[in-house]
Each structure stands twice: as structure tokens, then as C-alpha cells.
């Protein structure tokens, strides 16, 4: 058993379940609150869903269905009534729900791609990504329910080793941070990985950057580790 395997004995707890309609509605409300023009709303939705609209061998959608969805999105984003538009778009996107139910593994692969697009992060691998500020990086886990624990451990080790190279290449980066409901739900895991738990984030930050958790009163905590300690642990 290697170093990381010894440190993780339990899987990360699951986030409270949201339905397909809940997730789509939350996303669309954000789109409508920030995009006033129909074309801007249409383009924002297309950009977020772009990985699902690429017809490849593992795709759960035929090209004809993709075309139909895109036509529906273009039509419904022109509706003046927000609630009517959102309701129609949710129905229009139901083929995605069928894909998720019929082939959850390939669906989640596309969902991870969409997650990176949404947040603007830099992928280290299909599960782990990061963002960079002036003197620190913040790491993020993409959805991984369909991955086995062995796959998660392998991707985590791979991502950490790649992050070590990034930290070594930029001495201005002094810290690695993690902020998530996962940190709050499983702080012991982060401590075993070398992080110091900082506790719950402010309501202002939570409302701005973690709106679903804010609205559902889900705890979000932050954790950090110095770049030098991270390098020493994971090189």
C-alpha cells in the first residue's frame, strides 16, 4: 500500500442530492440574471453544454437530437417571460437526463469537461483542476461519482504530482488552497493530506461563489497547505 492509499480509508461523502431539474433551473436562473439579450443567453447555455453536444463514440445523443435541442434553446431563450422560458428549456434538455440514466459514466465524463468550462479552471487531469491567483493556487475536484476509489486515488496522485511541477516552476506561488462542501464534510481527509482546516467561509463569499450551497445552507469550509509542504509531501 503506497503513501496516498494509506492516508485515505473512506470515500468522500456525497453532496446532498439535487434533481436534474434543480440543477438546470439553478443554472438558467444565473444565466437570466446576468444575460439580458436573448443571443447572449443562448450563447452562454451553448458554451456550458458544449461537451454534451459533440457527437463521439461514447455520446448519448444522436446528432439529430443535438440539433433539435439547439434549435429549441435558440427559440426559448427569446421568450420574454423568464419562468416560461426556463420551464421550456428544462423540457428541451430532458434527453440529457436520459443519457445520464442510460450511461452515467460517459455522461459524467462530459460533465467534468463542462465543470472546467464553467469555472474557467486549468485541468490537471479529468478529475482534478486548479485556478491560480497572484501567490496561491486553489484546487477543485470535478464530479466523480462513477469513478471507482482506485480510479480516484490514481487521479488524485497524478494531479498532485503535476501540481508539484507547477509550484516548483513558479516560486511566487506560496500556498495551495481548497474551499468546498467536501472540505466541510470530510475535514479529516484533508488533514491527512497535509492541509490545515481554516473553517467556514464568510456568508458574503459563500453567496458570491457558492450560491447553491448558500441557498441550501450547506457548510463550505476552506483549507490550505504551504507550497513547500505540498512539494515535500507529493514530489
List keywords for this structure.
2 domains, Aminopeptidase, globular, 6-stranded mixed sheet, alpha+beta, 235 residues
What does this protein structure show overall?
It is built from 13 helices and 6 strands. By secondary structure, the protein is of the alpha+beta class. It has 2 domains: 20-111, no CATH class; 121-234, 3-Layer(aba) Sandwich (Aminopeptidase). The protein has a 6-stranded mixed sheet. Helix 4 packs antiparallel against helix 5 and helix 6 crosses helix 7.
Task: Give the beta-strand count.
Answer: 6
Continuous helix count: 13
List the strand order in the largest sheet: 1-2-3-4-6-5
The top level CATH class name of the largest domain = Alpha Beta
Share in β-strands: 5-15%
Mean pLDDT: 88
Instruction: Indicate the structural class.
Output: alpha+beta
Distance between the termini: 17 Å
Give the % helix.
Answer: 55-70%
CATH superfamily of the largest domain: Gcn5-related N-acetyltransferase (GNAT)
Q: Give the low-confidence spans.
A: 6-14
Largest sheet: 6 strands, mixed
> Helix and strand succession?
HHHHHHHEEEHEHHEHHEH
How many domains would you count in the coordinates? 2
| CATH fold node name of the largest domain | Aminopeptidase
Shape descriptor reads globular
- The Rg value, from CA coordinates, equals 19 Å
Amino acid at each position: 500500500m503506497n503513501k496516498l492509499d494509506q492516508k485515505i480509508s473512506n470515500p468522500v461523502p456525497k453532496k446532498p442530492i439535487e434533481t436534474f431539474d434543480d440543477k438546470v433551473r439553478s443554472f438558467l436562473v444565473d444565466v437570466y440574471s446576468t444575460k439580458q439579450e436573448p443571443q447572449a443567453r443562448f450563447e452562454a447555455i451553448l458554451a456550458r453544454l458544449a461537451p454534451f453536444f459533440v457527437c463521439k463514440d461514447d455520446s448519448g445523443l444522436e446528432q439529430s437530437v443535438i440539433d433539435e435541442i439547439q434549435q429549441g434553446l435558440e427559440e426559448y431563450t427569446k421568450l420574454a417571460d423568464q419562468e416560461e422560458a426556463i420551464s421550456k428549456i428544462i423540457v428541451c434538455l430532458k434527453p440529457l437526463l436520459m443519457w445520464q440514466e442510460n450511461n452515467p459514466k460517459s455522461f459524467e465524463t462530459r460533465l467534468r469537461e463542462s465543470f472546467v468550462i464553467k469555472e474557467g479552471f486549468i485541468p490537471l487531469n479529468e478529475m482534478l483542476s486548479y485556478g491560480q491567483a497572484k501567490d496561491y493556487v486553489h484546487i477543485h475536484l470535478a464530479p466523480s461519482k462513477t469513478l471507482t476509489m482506485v480510479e480516484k486515488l490514481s487521479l488524485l496522485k497524478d494531479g498532485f504530482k503535476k501540481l508539484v511541477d507547477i509550484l516548483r516552476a513558479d516560486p511566487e506561488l506560496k500556498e495551495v488552497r481548497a474551499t468546498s462542501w467536501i472540505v466541510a464534510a470530510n475535514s479529516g481527509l484533508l488533514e491527512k493530506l497535509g492541509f490545515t482546516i481554516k473553517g467556514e467561509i464568510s456568508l458574503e463569499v459563500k453567496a458570491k461563489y457558492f450560491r447553491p450551497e448558500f441557498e441550501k445552507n450547506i457548510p463550505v469550509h476552506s483549507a490550505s497547505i504551504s507550497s513547500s509542504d505540498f512539494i515535500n509531501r507529493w514530489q
